[in-house]
UniProtKB/TrEMBL annotation, chains A, B:
It comes from Termitidicoccus mucosus. Residues 2-224, 262-487 form the Polyphosphate kinase-2-related domain. It comes from the Bacteria. InterPro entries: P-loop_NTPase, PolyP_AMP_Tfrase, PPK2-related. GO terms for molecular function: polyphosphate:AMP phosphotransferase activity. SUPFAM superfamilies: P-loop containing nucleoside triphosphate hydrolases. Signal peptide: none annotated. This is Polyphosphate kinase-2-related domain-containing protein. GO terms for biological process: polyphosphate metabolic process.
Amino acid sequence: MSKKAYDDALPRLREQLVQMQVRLKQFPFKVMLIVAGLEGSGRSEYINTLTGWLDPRGVETFAFMEPSDEERERPFMWRFWRNLPANGCIGIYIGSWYAEALRGNSRRGKRARDDAHDLLKHIGQFEKLLTDNGTLIIKLWLHVSKANQGRHLRALEKNRDTAWRVTPEHWYQHRSYDRLARASRYVLDQTHTPAAPWVVLDIEDERARNLTLTEILIKRFDEHRRMLGARETAVPRPKPVPRAVTAAGRRRLGALPLDQELTEQEYRDKREKWLGRLHRAVRGAQDAKRSVVFVFEGWDAAGKGGSIRRLVSAIDARAYRVIPVAKPTDEEKAHHYLWRFWRCLPRDGRVTVFDRSWYGRVLVERVEGFARADEWHRAYDEINDFEQQLVEHGAVVVKFWLHISKDEQLRRFRLRERTPYKRHKINAEDWRNRRKWTAYEAALSDMFALTETPAAPWHLIPANNKQYARLQVLRLACKQIEAALKTKR
Amino acid sequence: MSKKAYDDALPRLREQLVQMQVRLKQFPFKVMLIVAGLEGSGRSEYINTLTGWLDPRGVETFAFMEPSDEERERPFMWRFWRNLPANGCIGIYIGSWYAEALRGNSRRGKRARDDAHDLLKHIGQFEKLLTDNGTLIIKLWLHVSKANQGRHLRALEKNRDTAWRVTPEHWYQHRSYDRLARASRYVLDQTHTPAAPWVVLDIEDERARNLTLTEILIKRFDEHRRMLGARETAVPRPKPVPRAVTAAGRRRLGALPLDQELTEQEYRDKREKWLGRLHRAVRGAQDAKRSVVFVFEGWDAAGKGGSIRRLVSAIDARAYRVIPVAKPTDEEKAHHYLWRFWRCLPRDGRVTVFDRSWYGRVLVERVEGFARADEWHRAYDEINDFEQQLVEHGAVVVKFWLHISKDEQLRRFRLRERTPYKRHKINAEDWRNRRKWTAYEAALSDMFALTETPAAPWHLIPANNKQYARLQVLRLACKQIEAALKTKR
């Protein structure tokens, strides 16, 4: 392409880019642009050109070197979750999860193959979750032939001023061209999905490449915006029915005996016993570099706070964090609902206690209509994948539902209203939730049916008797951690 | 204290706590509660009790184990900056920076003493910066005698169910009681400041302790709120004059020759030469595990973006990040203005480029009145301390001011307005800033006079000729990094 033709085409293209960024701010979603390819394909050159054209406010470039220990001590995808653009922004990825996938798939041996396979699965889930949530993912693969790659490297090396750009690593990759090309074909093939397809390009001329890639970006953006706009204004689709609307969960809750007897002395004795045992179990997890994630859900006034307080009294104060889940901040709102939970996952050997959790998506957000039906419907799978990643990484995921009867709730609400220092714990919202008891029961029924997994089972705790509930929490926490430590991670 | 007396006092106290939290949300500042003391002083017991009384939404407990590599590879205070409560919240600290200070000051040897001394200096600056900014820091030291410490540990060990609470570390600390007590007296003495004084308490009875500590918290909170309220409604104090209102900075800028000649060929040749050299310099910094922090400031349209783009083209894409500084998010607004910059400091061996920076505090925020006079006046010291910490940690801090004439700015503004894809770069605000040219010149003069330090000097770049400016940026960046690498960190 001639310089003249290029210069003539640029003003219009750059104007379109600017418009794109303005529109993205008005109707915010995430754009993730992955520019991948082997050495000498012109990835960095293109990214450098493109970032020169874009308004830097609203663009973030993400690149990845060796993971840090904070990253290694969490599920593999954590480092990518912490490197996401906010809604309204464009994230440009050099490297990305595909660098790892390529490395994995070019290695030999069964273990390497299995790991690589798991990784591709997680990548698929990650991209699906993001695109389902409105994110535009554009994946560009810049092809370069072995001959051109060699020519490119030699030309750089010949010039004294650019020779520094070529490292031994580049020549190593050149010698491994065939193996890397094979691996990349496989990875592309496995991750080419309708929602996030690959575009493979083979354009030698830098100017033509710059124009073509940018046109693709603009075109995909416009299509995506129209598609999301259409979804916004569409006649509401019929509410999807969760896959398993069973009465099983409800029956399970209904069958739960709620009123247990316990003397004060029995409670104290047993509490000390279980606290000691829990302390040893958590110590064991720490020694084994396994993290523990506690999830506390339950009816309003079911006693989550009190149970958590007793639980953590058995844990070294430096090793745990309690996360009370309230209204998201605006940084959190600019992301997928799971982002705020990824954000506070514990490192290996540490404990995080969630006081309410991601299950809000399929409980309050479903019942109150804060999430669209397709959103909360999708959430069961997303949650299972999320917990699965935690468990695969070695975490113990302990989930509690604290269950009280409707009468017991009323009694506690009234007590809170009568007690000055408890009055702040009860407000109009609690009374409103209470009126929706039946809707919550339906949501609970689906939740238990759809998110009960062998790796992260639900513990239903009868909690009309607070002290009994606390003991059960301690006992079941012990049991699950002890059992998990017996399995290899 | 009898159980009866305790139970009688509680309701009123807990009500006050609840009111405190409500008020804190309405008139938001940070509360940082540091509960320190030797083993057996009842720290954890009190924190456990207190968190049981507080509404968990709005309370965060911070504790610190060994620093992670991400923490070690940044200035020491980084891990505390990343663990601050937001405004409107209470942060409760177990351990905190005082654990480290105690450890440091109980060691022997000159090196240990020097390090410990530096640490106490940083702690002082950190607490001053926070309290100046409206934060309430309450520091409680719970005293325990050696005899009581021993009694406490033995009592726990005797009971089969609580024996697990005592570890060899506890007994080691007991044997070292005298040394630790000496070190703690020294640390308390050195960090007892009017703004963040220590309260030392010696109360053996747990109930009396719970009440007294909580009363102190409530009392200090009320005093602090009144003090801040008085400041809000006070008759504006006379505008403080910066310590050095010199004409030196202005003269320096005035004397800068702005128009340099350069042929296209000269530019290209020199650019390649300096890019190569910069590449080697940054590689050298990476090998030496030194980070580089670039600060780009300059008049609107001075060419910051273009200079940054050329600069980073010499750096491995995975090793640098460009941070365009725009409007803070609400999480950022709930913190000190430096928080957002601490947040994106590079790890050892990495590079961060700030496109505008913390200097906004003493430029736009001063000129536009977004910061009160006492705030921006304080900022010079805060900024110097901040950069000093970076440099002490081994970072190279390279600061540029891109300078153009008022006429040249006008020419560029008009060009932007005429060019469709540049139109977004110019808006009413740019024209408004331009009208305040003289006010900015005064602010710049103070900035250069007050934040020019040997460790982090300012580079004034004549930038009427863009290409010349880019070469200067490359050249000065090289020189400073090369010189820094010759010094030991």
